[in-house]
Amino acid sequence: MELGSFSLDGLALPAHLEEVRAEVRAFLAAERSSGGYRRDAAGWDRYDEAFSRKVGARGWIGMTWPKRYGGREASALERYVVSEELIAAGAPVRAHWLADRQFGPLLLNVGTEAQKRTYLPRIAAGECYVCVGMSEPDSGSDLASIRTRADKVEGGWRINGRKVWTSYAHRAHVMNLFARTAPRSEENRHAGVTQFIVDLKSPGIAIRPIYNLASEHDFNEVVFDDVFIPDGNVIGSVGGGWSQISAELAHERSGPERYLNAYGCLVHLLDRVGAAPGERDAEKIGRLVAHLWTLRQMSFAIAGMLERGRVPAVEAALVKDLGNHFDQAVPALAREIMSEDKRALAP
Q: For the chain, how many structural domains are there in total?
């Protein structure tokens, strides 16, 4: 499908990828039967370092990366199939996910040789976990409005500022930090933003928990008080953070997690209504299943575009937006149907 420069061509999977799919399913079945993990409402968003190391030992982290950095030089489509199976099964892959999906490709694109050799093999082994330092108080994820400063000093930079809503900073080893290295220009609001690799054990870093309504601790506030970062930890070019993240987000926005977050809920909903739902429920569920299938095809198509070396930024943003709507529509329909069931059972 093409509309001007916008493109989402259909994609036929090679037959050998079904063998890969079967291998992943067999591994997951064995893990569940041995108590390696159990599926629950949190799904793939659970943090399990031991499970990530098992996935790394299988060669399923950093699959597309060069072998000299711990990868397998597999295709983007093979990685996609593995990712889809892990997420659909609710496997606890959150520990390594961001490093595999975004940070590794970022280093491959713009990192130094020393950075690649230091971090990529550990990530591929499931032994190095990464968080992102972007959102700030009063600015959310608007990269142009960040205030965390990186001031140049001899041999490196001094970081001062705060990040909020940083997922799993308390369990990660390093942060992909966005900081301002030059004042914001009205002509180019995104100028002067630089990415840094930050060892979260560095002196001057305080990580404070942010609890959700269920008293769970996933998010954090991270405070930087005159933290020293060596020059060798600059990612890419000084001031080039905005252009670098544009390519990074194509990976973040288009993967199978964009349509499988609510997959477990949809499966439970289908089990609940049974093989013969009422006409009204069947129509609504059918619409959701059609949305799921469409998102899957779009997401696969973007994987094919990445395989061909393209940067489908607009297409990936569309998948993320539609996936967010799908994530909300599934539990909304589940609540509606369960409420109707309760009313039908009321005396």
A: 3
The confidence score (pLDDT) of residue 276 equals 64
Structural domain containing residue 173: 132-240
Assess if residue 163 is contained within a domain. yes
In a domain, 247, yes or no: no
Identify the pLDDT of residue 307.
76
3-class secondary structure per residue, the chain:
CEECCEECCCCCCCCHHHHHHHHHHHHHHHHHHCCCCCCCCCHHHCCCHHHHHHHHHCCCCCCCCCHHHCCCCCCHHHHHHHHHHHHHCCCCCHHHHHHHHHHHHHHHHHCCHHHHHHHHHHHHCCCCCEEEECCECCCECCHHHCCCEEEEECCEEEEEEEECCCCCCCCCCEEEEEEECCCCCCCCCCCCEEEEEEECCCCCEEEEEEECCCCCEEEEEEEEEEEEEEHHHEECCCCEHHHHHHHHHHHHHHCCHHHHCCHHHHHHHHHHHCCCCCHHHHHHHHHHHHHHHHHHHHHHHHHHHHHCCCCCHHHHHHHHHHHHHHHHHHHHHHHHHHHHHHHHHCC
CATH number, domain at 118?
A: 1.10.540.10
Considering the domain architecture, whether residues 303 and 328 belong to the same structural domain is answered as yes
Does the residue 249 lie in any domain? no
pLDDT exceeds 60 at position 11:
no
* pLDDT at residue 347 in the model: 42
Q: Which residues are catalytic?
A: 252
Tens digits of per-residue pLDDT, 276-286? 677 888 888 88
pTM across the whole model: 0.86
